[in-house]
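Predict the holo structure. Ligand: magnesium ion.
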Amino acid sequence: MISMTVQKILNGDRRTAARLIRDIDDGIPGTREILKAIHRHTGKAYVIGITGSPGVGKSTLVDQMIHGLRRSGKTVGVLAIDPTSPFSGGAILGDRIRMQRHSLDDGVFIRSLATRGQFGGLTQSTRSAIDVLDAMGKDYIIVETVGVGQDEVDIARSADTTVIVVVPGMGDHIQAIKAGIFEVGDIFVINKSDRPDAEKTLHDLRALFDIARKKLTGEGWEPPILMAEAASNRGIAELLDEIEKHRKSRKTLSHETVIHRKQAVARDELIDMIKCRLFQEALDHITSSPEFKIYLDCVTEGTKDPYSACDELLSAKLCFIGDEVNRKPDLQEYLVAQK
Amino acid sequence: MNNGRKIKVLVSVIGLDGHFTGAQIVSRFLMDAGMEVVYLGIYQTPEMIVRAAIDESVDVIGISSHASNYGQIGLLIDLMKKNDLVDVPLICGGTIPKGEAEALIKRGVSKIFPPQSTSESIIEYIVSCARG
Amino acid sequence: MKRETDYGYEIKPVYTPEDIADLDYTKDVGDPGAYPYVRGYHPNGYRNRVWTRRMTAGIGSSKRTNEVLKRYREMGQTQGILVICDRPNAMPIDADHPMGRREAGVLGWHGASLLEFEELMDGIPLTGQSITLLGSSAMSCMRLAYVVALAEKRGMDFREVHGSVTEYPFCSTCGQTDHMPLDLLIKLWMDSSEFIVRNKIHMRSGILSQHFQESGGNNAQALAMEIAQLKELLGLLVNERGLDFDDLSLLPYELVSVGSRFFEEIAKVRALRRMYAKMAKETFKAKTDKACQLLISVHTSGRTMTYQQPLNNIARCAIQTLAGAIAGCTAIDNACLDNAHAEPSAFAARMSLNTQHIVSDETGVTDVTDPLAGSYFVEYLTSRIEEEAYKILKQIEDQGGMTAAVKKGYIHNMMEESARKRQKEIESGERLVVGVNELAIPPEEDDEIPIESVVASDSEEIAERMENWKRKRNIPLLKEAIARVYDDAKKGRNFNLMPSIIEAVKAYGTAGEITGVIRMANGYHYDPLEMIECPFAL
Ligand SMILES: Nc1nc2c(ncn2[C@@H]2O[C@H](COP(=O)(O)OP(=O)(O)OP(=O)(O)O)[C@@H](O)[C@H]2O)c(=O)[nH]1
Ligand SMILES: [Mg+2]
């Protein structure tokens, strides 16, 4: 069953891939096994992250990039991520509208995802979805996220090239991106450059750059700032060129840098995965226990304060918290044996 | 954590019908009811809708129709059958005359909501068929 | 139940002279025929001329629509015709486009070429009645060219034709999407308008609040929208095309949507006349009286027509027609009782026309001008809605005017917000709609009404005919005319394309072809849906 699903995905079967991404997103058990099986078929696709504030034209830009990449014969996968409403848990996924002209192109697979606001869950399911598209054999995978929140920054960080989109006339907005994702940007695009103040924004960005650059170690890549007008397909060819240049520049990095980076990425990924799994399992473990119910009643009735309840619950249910860490001696032996 | 599935709905206007207000209002209240809505907007051909439904792996397709182009809805349902989307219910809303509505139901449309249907009744129906 | 106007003003149980104490009759209201025209433009009101009582036509092939128009004439509709276009026309694409094939003639008349206009008007006079073609802004120049070309063919002066065949460019934000980019729509609208004004043609251009309101906007918003649109568009003609505002006075007409909130609807129209007059005088420094008067037609509201118990809609239609008549207008067309079901059937159309005649001939409403003037409540509501509308207008202007507000999504959000609010009010029972949330009956007991069915094969027939006919045209002549349109379209926003469009229309160039090359010259794809390529080597 698993091998059949894997084979279908490797053959590029969009229905199977679509279903799998859905199951991953919904946290259906069993998807993990498939992900394990397809993982060794991944790593070939080039991942481009597109991020920026709401409405700056990211989706329009992605649409034009698909157009450009298809013209040079490349296949493209897109993951378009929109925020989940914190009130209802629902979402309107509206990025796809801007890319619908490619919907009948067999070389393009577009998928919308909602952030769902889970603890690390977005990064997790997005990475898994990237794996699926990668295994399908897409040459490029473009991931669109709204540039707010840590999750989005993490996703941007895991892309091979991260493009940050801004628009003219939003001074504060540039300040805002400086704080979070400015450092992760490999290429900056000033979209809607048909608007007044485009030049001024360019100037502001450059100034910010001079400050930020000092903090960053020189790695031989100076992030370029491009002007674009996605709605009229202006500046897209240049953007694709810069992405290609960035891709090449990564190839000329020294062996150590490459290893170092790979390690950093692997570390991030692994930690995220552990975090997510840990959080979910631990929480389930605690909240489904009879003790939880008892403590909950105590806190509700006021016979116990929530601080003590938390501490006591954790040390009771998770042996390594609060008490001496109860390391299993055989685990290390086991690992050594594995090597 | 959320172990249960979220309901995912595709909402679109079909053909050259330009009336998008209804579809947007529906999308909005489905979101408020906790669903994930892939909103396709206007000028979608049956082919484009089917492809999006497959790629997005949705549970339900909702079409808002205000331009008498039921022919397009007929084409859509045929195409859904051809593409093995029989387990995805197709629901429609808008100005569809009774006779046309009956014909569409016969052809395979799951449910047609006449104008002035309440958001509650639409949500309820989607929940019942997506879960069931 | 809510006792509020649809824009949220809470209504008091009684109104007294105190409520209108600020109102200065001569200055703020005035007699009929006197500035600021709250009471209308003619001292004699309908005694001069009763409003044009007409119905919308347009379905299937040109020949079929022509038959409907002739039938309406026989029913007694002789003051004017009103034809609505189909969806391909609004793109515009031709019937033989892959998407046009499926929908040509479905929702209206497929008027993509002079040939179709000739068929539409076969045996129907071009003059002596008003000719109104509605349903898309992108077609404005084309339709104006049809009129010029057909008048010439019939050996008459096109200046004698009256009515309206052109339409404002903002309809695309109001649930009636044209697929042309807004800037191009604005340019083409300016071209047609400039042509009309410079040639002194008796043709109006629809600058409407109806689409906005029918898509969900409320009364005060609709009023603000109308003024904002007029200000922006007339301003463009003055500033960019160098036209004199007083010469523009005969250009715009408004189609106002009138619903069932009787007093509010009347107040809205009265306020509109005052707001327009003030704008003309204060903003545009109008010199003549005429230039302070906005021609107003009424469309009874399709949105209020229920699917449930459709015969109830006859009552709604009558109330709305009476409101429109009391408010004072030039023409009324009705949404029919089957509006929520299908295109008007002959039965529904007859009911609508009869309703208008019952109102005009049996109620005595035509005897006296602006009969509700002086009513504490109506005068108060008139001032109140105006005040509300000015607030919204200011917000639109703070966005940078109408075009900017559209581009920023402001207008669209306002409309959607208001539509959602209304839906909620009906669902919660705060607003009652008979047959829907009050006195509802089971669907199987509902009224049976005749339904005008759309025949799917009609579209295919229209498409095939066009395909064959296109090949039989004088191709060299056509190519030359199309090339000229293309070249002219590259000459910038203020180079008027009407002359070259007229030549191309006479050479039987189609809507898809002519607007296609105009799109290309402006950097867009020939086909708005990007499915077909331009057939001309340019
Ligand atoms: N003037 C101008 N408008 C543009 C340009 N690019 C995109 N837009 C418009 O900006 C609006 C938002 O575009 P999207 O592509 O949906 O923006 P987004 O960043 O993906 O938006 P979210 O996904 O909602 O955050 C649309 O109306 C576009 O047509 C441009 O270069 N110039
Ligand atoms: Mg987007």
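Chain B touches chain A through 31 residues (CB under 8 Å). The pocket of guanosine-5'-triphosphate (ligand 1) is lined by residues A 54-60, 95, 98, 146, 191-192, 194, 229-231 (CB under 6 Å).
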